[in-house]
Amino acid sequence: MKKDKHGNSCNKLLPVNIFTLAAVKFDYNKSITFAEKLYGSNGIYFDIRQQLCLALTETQQTKLAVIDGQCKWDQNNAEQDDLFELVKGRVGAGISIFIVGGINTDGKTTLAGCAGHSPSKPAAVVSATGTMYTLAHELGHVLLTSTFSPVHETSNSNIMVNGTHNIPADSFPTFNATQIKQILKSTHLKDC
Ligand SMILES: [Zn+2]
Description:
Elements: E1 12-20, H1 28-40, E2 44-53, H2 58-64, E3 66-67, H3 78-86, E4 95-100, E5 102-103, E6 113-114, E7 123-127, H4 134-144, H5 177-183, E8 190-191
Parallel strand pairs: 1-2, 1-4, 3-5, 4-7
Antiparallel strand pairs: 1-8, 6-7
The chain binds zinc ion.
């Protein structure tokens, strides 16, 4: 049976494409290792298809420095179109993760991440000002889908806690059994 580098057996594959558009303020390598271990410990192989740092033109940088659309589920928005336009022809199978400089929903509220996406374009946006847990958390939302409840947990030992900045550094927050059961039903997971 296929195993990942942390020794976890592969029951399902989670294909992801990671596009970085901004200088990341959290520890990127730790965030990837954490996601590999978290999903891997549940038999889900964190399958990174590509990791691209995108060089933006000055105009693109100004436009996309901070994503300021509303974080809404199941619908497309102009900024997501802009993000996908940047990686046109490069997005293969799997979920696209865009790391952006910031996420601002209404001029005041900033978010560490947003998992709202158009149904036909699975994606999550992670803020460069998020934490090493934000990427795994936003992917969790995509896999759990918009109808899963509760959206967030109150315990900071659960990766789906409300606010990944509440998770202590270098801890290992997990999914609970109900969350995993739902995640394993995700159509984004492929066979190993
Ligand atoms: Zn969340």
